[in-house]
């Protein structure tokens, strides 16, 4: 509890002033498999593009895009149809990535920071200057979390994780214990 409170305060002190004191809206998902990352992860929806999550998926694949930045053609695009893609920040805009995943039939995209060791900074994802739009939801994930998910899948030789999204954490009494252990410091 104390740890959690500390973390929350830390987030506010360190991150909010830079963004006009805006406290982020969070969206949670749980990895169901592989078992070693069976945690509840915290993501933040894009600020001004993409759709809202109005469907709850009890089980859906989270497929790491190949190449990870998903700025153009994907070699594993067929796996993304009707599933959710995990992509990496960098190379092109957040919106471009979202559109690439949408074009492959993805239901949503989770974009992880490319700063692998950064476990505290939620980037606010905003429109680029292109005036294009995207219909599927786009979520931002901490670099550390994205890295740990990818690494686990690589270690197991798995093409995707199975997740549940969104998760209502207020209905889970043990929620705090289900966050990734590397979240705390
Ligand atoms: C995380 O990223 C933010 C923004 O780039 C930076 O201010 C902060 O120092 C980084 N933290 C770590 C632990 O790298
Ligand atoms: C989340 O769970 C709480 C507690 O069970 C419940 O009161 C609330 O309505 C739920 N929220 C949603 C969006 O389902």
UniProtKB/TrEMBL annotation:
> Which compartments is it annotated to reside in?
Secreted
- Alphabetical list of InterPro entries matching this protein: PA_dom_sf, PA_domain, PRADC1-like_PA
Q: Name one Pfam family in it.
A: PA
Where on the tree of life does the source sit, at the highest rank? Eukaryota
User: What Gene Ontology terms describe where this protein resides (cellular component)?
Assistant: extracellular region
Which parts of the sequence belong to the PA domain? 62-146
Tell me, in a sentence or two, what this protein's role is: Plays a role in the modulation of physical activity and adiposity.
Kindly give the PANTHER family that the UniProt entry links to this protein: PROTEASE-ASSOCIATED DOMAIN-CONTAINING PROTEIN, PROTEASE-ASSOCIATED DOMAIN-CONTAINING PROTEIN 1
The protein depicted here goes by the name Protease-associated domain-containing protein 1
Q: What is the lineage of its organism?
A: Eukaryota, Metazoa, Chordata, Craniata, Vertebrata
